[in-house]
Design a protein that fits this description.
Helix 3 runs parallel beside helix 16 and helix 27 packs across helix 29. It is built from 29 helices and 35 strands. It has a 7-stranded mixed sheet with strand order 6-5-17-16-15-7-8, with helices on both faces. Strands 22-26-23-25-24-27 form a 6-stranded mixed barrel. The protein has a 6-stranded antiparallel sheet with strand order 29-30-28-33-32-31. The longest helix is centred in the N-terminal third of the chain and has 19 residues. It binds iron/sulfur cluster. The site of iron/sulfur cluster has 14 residues, from helix 1 and helix 7.
Length: 887
């Protein structure tokens, strides 16, 4: 799959973006010298678009910080030594303590082939089901809800349905930031067909909500009450499709009776009754409705019930599986769906088969399994609890970072520190989860590995290698197969390439299927793997994918009917108190991905939100004596994080929001996982990541500083707080200290080394100190200290790290923090990362040039004219601009 390269080079490889569940097609350069990336116009998910994260992929593939060789106990070893150790320790542990004493924790970043081998090894040959995945944190409530309602884990519709619908309801989804290309498709469809309406249901007024025709800022956790009320309304107002309900469903009466008992929906949801009535009316009157839901629904102790409350509303109206209609779960990760296909979750077996006798026996026979598991295994939170209390004695973590991303991460770290044997397969040398690894195994990354992924609309796409394997890094499937061979299972794992694994995966999906299971790749058996074009499963015949299911019924319960599920609203597991009076919600920011091992390398992606922050309503901040940009300590009783306060009128009173990405590799103390209790949905096991009672207090800060340095600095006790970001050829650190420093040069030299020449400026009366370090005329470091954080100089200072020798005029100007003759005006927080256009610049241009549209802003400043990720924020600024400009 080669054609002309995106940057005009020889050729490009058609592959898939490794980030969110939209699964955009990417055309990427085929050599290290040709790293350009562009959207693949032939890929059905994105039709050529990429968001800013996808556009910046070329900035993330350097080998800085990569793990390139196997290591044991911190020392480089041969592959044979490392693999023998892993196989030996796992075999010994199983022999002494049984198969359930070991576990794998894998990842939605895995390719399907890696996932398949991991699942087969654990469930078929080790004989345990203790394999779970970080997808448990992402969409396991949707999986459980689908299985309860449909008898299978099936997403009924496709992305095109969002464009064909007349009403799109986004529940618990900040798609503008988390699924940007899908959101751009939606906005484009509404622009072309203005009668389409968008409703956003989310406690926060996010960038997504700003674009909505109606926003219901409901009380966190009240989704079941809202959708039960809708269910009752639809049944009462004549919107029920009685023929569909009768022919294709069961259980409506019981579910409806419980929904009717719900009481006052407006009070339960804390939303104006008129807004709820308007939403119900639009939903009832509109035949073509798609309800998109994401982590705001799934990451809840009632996550599965929320999913079923939504599905009930589509079943009663028969609006499912037809163009422009249906419930639609959007996954967070690139291959969460692929993991579901192979059984990456501990409570699924393989190829959408479960732990019934027929399924277990069928998979056992297909695999020729030596030690077939017979029961579900531990789900993520329970799995690491079992590591901590010693039931699991050997754990292999692959392509994920649970010490940063799970709940109660202090507990996860203790578990790993005390576990007798920890293996980590990783791209990078240092993560929060690798600190206590006995063995580290270097895995291939995006651009280096070969396989398939499945996106949120069931579309299977190839990820293709276009870079050579660096160092001794190997594919995950190869690593696991080698361990399997050393454990005595070589015959079943004699794969020589990913294509063989994919073919086996297809054959298992088809094995004794005959239409009885939704997941069926019969038509891909023996397909040309190299040339495989994106296709939506089921693929029952060659070349025939399936865009939609269930339009004419045909559900996968034994009677072929869907189930209405009886659900009742219940509150989240925790409650606020005098000690912890605020509710912490967590989620993604626009330009970072998971624990930042890749996006953290990109200078461009660091400019949108460079620091971990806490969003709080201005009224709550004023009541607590807090101000914009204060450092605050957020604590929950389990742990704490230090974040930068940002005032956000889009927050409900009493609720705060923090991003999930920062961890100990990027900040002193910003891992919000430390704060979150391990409460889970009792059906799905998905953690409640969006409802944690916390207290917020101001951190006393004597000084703030910006440190730009070519080399990674070392921090002593005088630096109370640091946050790291990538710059072009340098690091950017924001620092804070609690006590004034007597000798700033000594502090700086201690952080970055004392060689060369130091330029100094001091205004002690105002607490301003500036230092620059030059070695042989080359700028090595700059330290700007001030009583309040000041970023005005950052962009220009960063440019000085480009040349080998600093120009004489710049040398004179460096401590002034601005180019000779420049005004030094701050462009404000970056909105358009592609063209580095800040909010202040945009507001100034709107005011000075009477800009009235996103197109006007693009013409004036270029903002929003490349990837389009910032377009929703530009619209937001335009809507808010009169007040903002006046301010
Ligand atoms: Fe990648 Fe962005 Fe597409 Fe998601 S929307 S797959 S992050 S390019």
């Amino acid at each position: 799959m080669f054609d002309a390269a995106p940057n005009g080079g020889d050729r490009a490889v058609c592959t898939t973006c490794p980030y969110c569940g939209v699964g955009c097609g990417v055309r990427a350069g085929s050599s290290a010298a040709n790293e350009g990336v562009a959207g693949d116009s032939a890929h059905p998910a994105n039709l050529g678009r990429l968001c800013v994260k996808g556009s910046a992929l070329g900035e993330t593939i350097s080998l800085d910080g990569r793990l390139l060789h196997p290591q044991m106990d911190g020392k480089q070893v041969s592959w044979d030594a490392a693999l023998d150790r892993v196989a030996g320790e796992f075999s010994r542990t199983i022999a002494e303590h049984g198969p359930d004493s070991v576990a794998f924790y894998v990842s939605g970043q895995f390719l399907t082939e890696d996932y398949y081998v991991a699942n087969k090894l654990m469930k078929g040959f080790i004989g345990s089901s203790n394999i779970d995945t970080n997808s448990r944190l992402c969409m396991s409530s949707s999986v459980a809800g689908h299985i309860r309602a449909f008898g299978s884990d099936t997403v009924p519709g496709c992305y095109e349905d969002l464009e064909l619908a007349d009403l799109v309801v986004l529940v618990g989804s900040n798609a503008a930031w988390c699924h940007p290309v899908l959101f751009q498709r939606l906005l484009a469809a509404r622009a072309a067909r203005p009668k389409m309406k968008i409703v956003v249901i989310d406690p926060r007024r996010t960038t997504t909500a700003e674009a909505a025709d109606l926003h219901l800022a409901l009380r966190p956790g009240s989704d079941v009450a809202l959708f039960n009320g809708l269910f009752v309304h639809l049944a009462a107002c004549g919107s029920a499709d009685k023929a569909f309900v009768k022919a294709h469903t069961t259980g409506m009466d019981d579910a409806l009776a419980t929904a009717r008992a719900a009481g006052d929906v407006a009070a339960a949801c804390d939303v104006a009754a008129a807004d709820i009535a308007l939403f119900y009316d639009w939903f009832a009157r509109t035949a073509k409705v798609v309800t998109v839901y994401s982590q705001g629904v799934n990451q809840s102790s009632a996550g599965t019930d929320k999913v079923n409350a939504i599905i009930n509303c589509h079943l009663v109206t028969g609006r499912i599986g037809r163009p422009g209609m249906g419930p639609f779960s959007v996954t967070g990760q690139p291959n969460a769906m692929g993991g579901r296909e192979v059984g990456g979750l501990s409570n699924m077996l393989a190829a959408h088969m479960g732990f019934d006798h027929v399924g277990i026996d069928r998979v056992r026979r297909f695999w020729g399994a030596a030690n077939m598991t017979h029961k579900p295994g531990l789900k993520a939170v329970d799995l690491f609890q079992a590591v901590k209390d010693g039931r699991i004695k050997a754990v292999w973590i692959m392509a994920t970072n649970p010490a940063a991303s799970l709940t109660d991460t202090n507990n996860v770290r203790i578990a790993l520190a005390n576990c007798p044997f920890v293996v980590v397969s990783e791209l990078v040398q240092a993560t929060d989860s690798s600190l206590d690894a006995h063995v580290m195994l270097p895995a291939l990354g995006w651009g280096e590995k070969d396989g398939t992924v499945t996106n949120s609309e069931r579309c299977i796409s190839r990820q293709r290698a276009f870079l050579p394997a660096p160092g001794e890094a190997r594919a995950d499937w190869w690593i696991m197969s080698e361990v399997a061979r050393r454990m005595g299972h070589g015959e079943a794992f004699a794969y020589t390439n990913a294509a063989e694994i994919f073919d086996e995966h297809c054959r298992l999906s088809a094995f004794e299927n005959d239409g009885s299971r939704d997941f069926d790749l019969t038509g891909l058996i023996g397909a040309d793997y190299d040339a495989l074009a994106p296709i939506q499963w089921p693929v029952r015949k060659a070349g025939q994918g399936t865009a939609r299911l269930f339009g004419e019924g045909g559900f996968y319960h034994a009677d072929g009917k869907a189930r209405f599920i009886t659900v009742a609203h219940r509150s989240p597991r925790s409650a606020v108190s005098n000690e912890f009076p605020l509710i912490l919600n967590t989620g993604r920011t626009r330009d970072q991905w998971h624990t930042m091992t890749r996006t953290g390398k990109s200078p461009r992606l660091a400019t949108h939100r460079a620091e971990p922050w806490l969003a709080m309503h201005p009224g709550d901040a004023a009541a607590a004596g807090l101000a914009e940009a204060d450092l605050v300590r957020v604590s929950s009783g389990l742990g704490e994080a230090v974040l930068k306060l940002t005032l956000d009128a889009g927050q409900r009173r009493g609720e705060v929001f923090a991003p999930m990405h920062w961890n100990d590799q990027f900040a002193t103390s910003a891992n919000v996982g430390r704060l979150i209790a391990p409460h889970v949905c009792s059906v799905s096991g998905q953690p409640e990541l969006k409802f944690t009672p916390v207290a917020v207090r101001k951190v006393a800060v004597a000084w703030h500083a910006m440190l730009l340095s070519r080399q990674a600095p070392a921090f002593g006790s005088q630096v109370m707080n640091w946050v790291r970001a990538a710059g072009e050829g340098h690091f950017v650190h924001r620092l804070a200290g609690s006590e004034m420093v007597a000798d700033w040069q000594a502090l700086a030299a201690g952080m970055v080394g004392g060689d060369g020449v130091w330029l100094r400026f001091a205004d002690a009366a105002h607490g301003i100190f500036r230092l620059a370090n030059l070695v042989d005329g080359r700028l090595e470091a700059v330290l700007f200290v001030a009583p309040r954080a000041d970023e005005a100089s950052l962009a220009w200072l960063g440019q000085l790290f480009g040349p080998e020798r600093i120009a004489a005029s710049d040398r004179i100007a460096v401590l002034a923090g601005r180019a000779p003759g420049a005004s030094g005006a701050d462009c404000g927080p970056i909105v358009c990362a592609c063209h580095q256009v800040g909010r202040t610049t945009i507001l100034d241009a709107i005011r000075a040039q009477n800009l009235a549209s996103v197109a006007d802003i693009g013409a004036a400043l270029k903002a929003g004219t490349n990837c389009g990720s910032c377009v929703p924020e530009l619209r937001q600024i335009l809507v808010q601009s009169p007040a903002a400009v006046a301010a």
